[in-house]
Amino acid sequence: MHAEVGDKVVVHGRTVGTADRSGTVVEARGSEGPYLVRFDDGHESLVFPGPDVSIESHAS
């Protein structure tokens, strides 16, 4: 899964009742991740893409 700076990342809730979290890639540390993501609530975290992550390209 490839993402670039500016792409939107959505981390889907893994259990019933857990909300999805979304944010923007601010740094790509490798071609397939991890990605430094600034979430909509303001905090930043490294995201390692997996089956619970989707990426929406900003270049569309």
How do the strands and helices of this protein lay out in sequence?
Blueprint lengths: L7 E4 L9 E8 L6 E5 L4 E4 L5 E4 L4
Antiparallel strand pairs: 1-2, 1-5, 2-3, 3-4
Organism: Cellulomonas biazotea
Pfam family, one: DUF1918
Protein name: DUF1918 domain-containing protein
Structure description:
There is one protein chain. With 60 residues, this protein is mostly beta strands. It has a single domain, classed as SH3 type barrels, CATH 2.30.30. Helix content is 0%, strand content 42%. The chain is globular and about 30 Å long. The model has no long low-confidence stretch (mean pLDDT 92). This is DUF1918 domain-containing protein.
Q: Do you know the CATH topology?
A: SH3 type barrels
The portion of residues forming beta strands comes to: 35-45%
Oligomeric description of these chains: single chain
User: So what's the CATH class?
Assistant: Mainly Beta
* Radius of gyration using CA atoms only: 11 Å
Residue share in helices?
under 10%
Enumerate the spans where pLDDT stays under 50 for 5 or more consecutive residues: none
The spatial strand order of the largest sheet comes to 4-3-2-1-5
Summarize the helix and strand pattern as letters: EEEEE
Overall outline = globular
Number of helices: 0
Structural class: mainly beta
Mind summarizing the main beta sheet?
A: 5 strands, antiparallel
CATH architecture name: Roll
Domain DUF1918: 1-55
Protein name: DUF1918 domain-containing protein
